[in-house]
Amino acid sequence: MNLDTISSQDIILTGDRTTGQLHLGHYVGSLRNRVILQDRCAQFLLLADAQALTDNMGNYLKVRDNVLQVALDYLAVGIDPAKSTIFIQSLVPELTELASYYLNLVTVSRLERNPTIKDEIKQRGYERDIPAGFLTYPAAQAADITAFKATLVPVGDDQIPMIEQTNEIVRRFNASVDQPVLVEAKAVVPEVGSRLPGIDGKAKMSKSLGNTITLSASPDDIRQAVKMMYTDPNHLRVDEPGQVEGNVVFTYLDAFHPDQALVAELKAHYQRGGLGDTVIKKHLEDCLQDMLAPIRARREHYAQDPAAVLDMLKAGTRRARDVAARTLAEVKAAMGLNYY
Amino acid sequence: MNLDTISSQDIILTGDRTTGQLHLGHYVGSLRNRVILQDRCAQFLLLADAQALTDNMGNYLKVRDNVLQVALDYLAVGIDPAKSTIFIQSLVPELTELASYYLNLVTVSRLERNPTIKDEIKQRGYERDIPAGFLTYPAAQAADITAFKATLVPVGDDQIPMIEQTNEIVRRFNASVDQPVLVEAKAVVPEVGSRLPGIDGKAKMSKSLGNTITLSASPDDIRQAVKMMYTDPNHLRVDEPGQVEGNVVFTYLDAFHPDQALVAELKAHYQRGGLGDTVIKKHLEDCLQDMLAPIRARREHYAQDPAAVLDMLKAGTRRARDVAARTLAEVKAAMGLNYY
C-alpha cells in the first residue's frame, strides 16, 4: 500500500474477524499501517463478530470473547480510539438492514462465482452445505464498506473480488434509484513482502496452524518461537553458505529490524558462509523482544480495566452507528421507504 | 382454519406483500378471519414491503405506495388497529438482524430444496439468476415469525414448507445456545373453499391476470366483473340444465351470499334447467354490492386522511418494534452478543 496516495478526504474501512488474538502477521500486513493512517484520514475499524459467526455459529463464545482481545491488540499497537473509530459490528444493526437490501441486487450464481467465496468454500470443505450466511457475506461486506462511504479498503489480493462485488452492488443500487447515493471503494493491496510467513515457513501465519507469534506473546513465547523458526534446512554447517530466500528468520529481520543495513550485512555473511542460525536468531529475538515489550506492556495496562475498553468501544460504536444511520436513511429515502 | 382451536394465549403473525390493493380472494382467504381473530388472541399484521422488494427492486415505488393502500384495505374490512398490531416491515430493523443470524443456520442447498422457493423460482423464470434476497427469504420469514414468538401462521398449503423451514431454524438456534429462546409456530391452513378463483375461472385471483375484484372496486367495476364472470360455457339455453361445479358465480355465491338456503335452491334450479346466468349473476351482483358498499365507504373515509393512517401505522410499528427488540435482545444475549 502506497501511503503517500492517501488523501485527507479518504475514508478507510477495515477491521478483523474476532476469532482469535492478533499476531505479527496482522501487525505487518495492516496494524502498523493503521497507526500511520489514523493521522491522515478518517478510519473505521470493524470488530467483525457478526461476520465471524457466519462460520462459527457453533463457537459463538469464542467470537464474543475475542472482541475484547482484538480491541486490546488495537490499543496495544497504538491505534488511538480518538483518531480511529473502533466499533462492534453486531451493535450496528444498520449494517444488516443495508445488507438485506443489497441481497436483492446480487444473484445467487454471481455469489457462487465470486472467486474469494469459491476459495473459502473449498478451504472450509463446505461442498454444498454452505451456510447461507457464508455465501451471502459479500452483501454484508458491501454494507460494511458502503455504510461509511469508504473510499479505500485495505485487503489482501485474495480479497479483491469482494471489493469488485461491493462496487457492482453500488452501481446497481445507484442505477436502480437513479441517484449517486452510494460510493465506490478502491481495494488497497499491501506491498509485496507485507504478508508474513508462519514461523514454520508456511505461507500463512495462522492460529490454527500453531505457527504464529501473537502480539501478547510473553518473552519466553518469543524465545521459543524464534528457536523453532524455519531457516535453511540445507545449512547444516556454520562455515558453509546458507540460503536467505525462504529463510523465515531473514524474512522477519526484513520486516522488523530497525537497522536494515545490518540486516543486509548479515544476509551477505550468511550467504558466503560462516554465520550460524544461532547468531541470526539472536538478532531477530532481540529485535522482536524490543518491539513487542512496549506493545505487551500497553496491552497488559489496558487489560487491567476491561470496563474502560468497553466504554471506548461503546463510544466508537455510537459514532459508527451515527454515520451508518445517515447512509441507511439516504438509501431508504431513495427507495421511497421513508413513510413518516 | 378451525377458528375454535385458537386460544387466547396464541400469537398470530400474518400479513401481505405490498404489491397491490387487496381483493376478494384476500378477503375470503384471510382478511375475514383476521377480523374475527383479533378478538380472540394477539395478532401481528405485517405490511411486507421489504419482502416485496426481494423481487420488485426495479419497482420500489409501487411497493412503497401500496403500504398505504393495503393499510386502507385492512381498515376498510374492519381490522381494528387497537386490537391488531399493524406494522411496516422495513421499519422494524430487528427483523433483518434476526434474519442475518438465521442465515448462518440454514445451508444454501437446504434453501434450494425448499419446495415453495423452488416453485416460485420456476414461476418467476429466474433459472440461476435468482436474487440472493429471494433465495434467502425463508430466513427473513423465520425472523418475521419468531420475532413475535408467533404460535400460529395462517398460510396457503403451498407455504407449509416455509413454516417447516422456520421451525428448523428455531430448533437449530435453540440447540446451538442450549436454551429455548425461540418458539416453534404452527401453520394454519384455511379450509377448502377459501381460495377464490378469478372471475375468469382461473384457479388464482391475481392482479397480474386482471381477474380480480378489488376491495375498493366501484359499483360499476363490480357490475362489469360479474357480467364477465365465467359460468358454464356449455349452458347455452336457459331451459337446459347448467353445471354448478367450476361455475364461478356459484363459487362466489357460496363464499359470500348471506342466505345459503337460497343459494342451495338456486343451484338445484340451475342444475335441473330453467335458470339463466342473468338471474344468478343478478343475485351475486346484489350480494357483492351490499357487501362491498360499507367496505368501500370505510376505505374512502380513511383515504381522506392518509396522515392519520400513517400515524396509526407508526403506533403499530412502535409496538411491533418493542416486541421484536425484546426477542432480539434474548437471541443476542444467548449468543453472548451483549457486550454492555
Automatic annotation (TrEMBL), chains A, B:
The GO annotation for biological process reads:
tryptophanyl-tRNA aminoacylation
Give the matching Pfam families: tRNA-synt_1b
Gene Ontology annotations for the cellular component aspect, listed alphabetically: cytosol
Name the source's superkingdom.
Answer: Bacteria
- Report the top EC class in one word: ligase
Which CDD domains did the record assign?
TrpRS_core
SUPFAM superfamilies documented for this protein = Nucleotidylyl transferase
Kindly provide the name given to this protein in its UniProt entry. Answer: Tryptophan--tRNA ligase
Q: Which organism is it from?
A: Chromobacterium alticapitis
